[in-house]
């Protein structure tokens, strides 16, 4: 049997519809949620992600401003812009697109964002609160994955979840969310990485396999349990079409794994659109919190 497709595009659209109602409720009180995106340099993939974020914000009626800085921007210059955005009451959310140029310290930059406006959930205070299960901004991709599982009826309680990849923006936080006590959590989580011995022995035991390794098609069918739920976080540009658009591949060998899994996310149209939508969720939540309308 071919796996059921978990369509991020559709789930994200459903969430955005609910969000639009919250934006309307805020506007009825004279509140317009505001998002600042900051991009340093001219990486084409980063440019297209940031454009997509601003467009989605605009479509939802969220005020958004895009700051494009040259690659040669100094760290001090970037910190000054972040301080200005942090002090601007019209802005509820600040997103600094990663990766940053090598001469800028990502950790210093992320720690400079007001935690109350850290809609990416990357500030150390939000990372700590997430681990403690306290109110915070959840990082967008992990939050999107949990929302996607919940809305497609995949039970996580008691499930064997295997995460491949230990990045700060996906692997570590998605493992933390799924092991948390409560709805959307309660899973038994294993995290694999480049030093894991016999990775396939772990992945084959997974009821839910989440792959965020950044290696195109690394998960082959023999590594997947029959009827497993497979969440593919990879967005690898593996070539260019004649029309100039990138050819994308996930970290999962989709054509083979779709025949073995019970459910699978496509690339594109899977986790990616969820990531952008959860950023909007956090921006609206930030606006609600700023006006005492949410915890
Ligand atoms: N501060 C920060 N926050 C981020 O959330 C962040 C970041 N930096 N740096 C890079 C990663 C990557 N990321 C993606 C967002 C959307 C898609 C997405 O929408 N992908 C489409 C395909 C889009 C395409 O054609 O490339 C899809 O999968 O359907 C992918 C990847 C956010 N990131
Ligand atoms: Mg099957």
From TrEMBL:
All residue ranges annotated as the Tetrahydrofolate dehydrogenase/cyclohydrolase catalytic domain in the record: 6-120
UniProt-annotated binding residues for NADP(+): 165-167, 235
Keyword Ribosomal protein in annotation: no
InterPro entries according to UniProt: Aminoacid_DH-like_N_sf, NAD(P)-bd_dom_sf, THF_DH/CycHdrlase, THF_DH/CycHdrlase_cat_dom, THF_DH/CycHdrlase_CS, THF_DH/CycHdrlase_NAD-bd_dom
Domain Tetrahydrofolate dehydrogenase/cyclohydrolase NAD(P)-binding: start-end pairs: 139-290
Any Pfam family the entry gives: THF_DHG_CYH_C
A single GO BP: tetrahydrofolate interconversion
Pathway field: One-carbon metabolism; tetrahydrofolate interconversion
Oxidoreductase recorded as keyword: yes
Gene Ontology MF terms: methenyltetrahydrofolate cyclohydrolase activity; methylenetetrahydrofolate dehydrogenase (NADP+) activity
Gene3D superfamilies cross-referenced by the UniProt entry: Leucine Dehydrogenase, chain A, domain 1, NAD(P)-binding Rossmann-like Domain
GO cellular component term, pick one: cytosol
PROSITE patterns per UniProt: THF_DHG_CYH_2
Catalytic reaction annotation: (6R)-5,10-methylene-5,6,7,8-tetrahydrofolate + NADP(+) = (6R)-5,10-methenyltetrahydrofolate + NADPH; (6R)-5,10-methenyltetrahydrofolate + H2O = (6R)-10-formyltetrahydrofolate + H(+)
EC number: 1.5.1.5, 3.5.4.9
Keywords: Amino-acid biosynthesis, Histidine biosynthesis, Hydrolase, Methionine biosynthesis, Multifunctional enzyme, NADP, One-carbon metabolism, Oxidoreductase, Purine biosynthesis
Subunit structure: Homodimer.
Family: Belongs to the tetrahydrofolate dehydrogenase/cyclohydrolase family.
Function noted in UniProt: Catalyzes the oxidation of 5,10-methylenetetrahydrofolate to 5,10-methenyltetrahydrofolate and then the hydrolysis of 5,10-methenyltetrahydrofolate to 10-formyltetrahydrofolate.
Protein name: Bifunctional protein FolD
Native organism: Desulfobulbus oralis
């Amino acid at each position: 049997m071919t796996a059921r497709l978990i369509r991020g595009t559709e789930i994200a659209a459903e969430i955005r519809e609910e969000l639009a109602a919250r934006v309307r409720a805020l506007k009825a009180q004279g509140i317009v949620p505001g998002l600042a995106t900051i991009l340093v340099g001219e990486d084409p993939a980063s440019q297209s992600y940031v454009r997509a974020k601003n467009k989605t914000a605009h479509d939802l009626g969220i005020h958004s401003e895009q700051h494009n800085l040259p690659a040669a921007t100094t760290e001090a210059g970037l910190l000054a812009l972040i301080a200005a955005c942090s002090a601007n009451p019209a802005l509820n959310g600040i997103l600094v697109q990663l990766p940053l140029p090598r001469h800028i310290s990502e950790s210093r930059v992320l720690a400079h964002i007001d935690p109350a406006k850290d809609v990416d959930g990357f500030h150390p205070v939000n990372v700590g609160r997430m681990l403690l299960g306290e109110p915070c901004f959840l990082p967008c991709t992990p939050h999107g994955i949990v929302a996607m599982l919940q809305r497609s009826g995949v039970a996580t309680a008691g499930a064997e979840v295997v995460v491949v990849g230990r990045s700060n923006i996906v692997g570590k936080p998605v493992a933390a969310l799924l092991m948390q006590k409560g709805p959307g959590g309660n899973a038994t989580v294993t995290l694999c990485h480049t030093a894991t011995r016999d990775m396939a022995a772990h992945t084959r035991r997974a009821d839910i396999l989440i792959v965020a390794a950044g290696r195109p098609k690394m998960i082959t069918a023999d590594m997947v349990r029959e009827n497993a739920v497979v969440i593919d976080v990879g967005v690898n540009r593996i070539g260019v079409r004649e029309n100039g658009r990138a050819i994308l591949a996930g970290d999962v060998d989709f054509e083979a794994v779709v025949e073995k899994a019970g459910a699978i996310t496509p690339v594109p149209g899977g986790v990616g659109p969820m990531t952008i939508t959860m950023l909007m969720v956090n921006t609206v939540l930030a606006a609600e919190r700023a006006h005492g309308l949410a915890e």
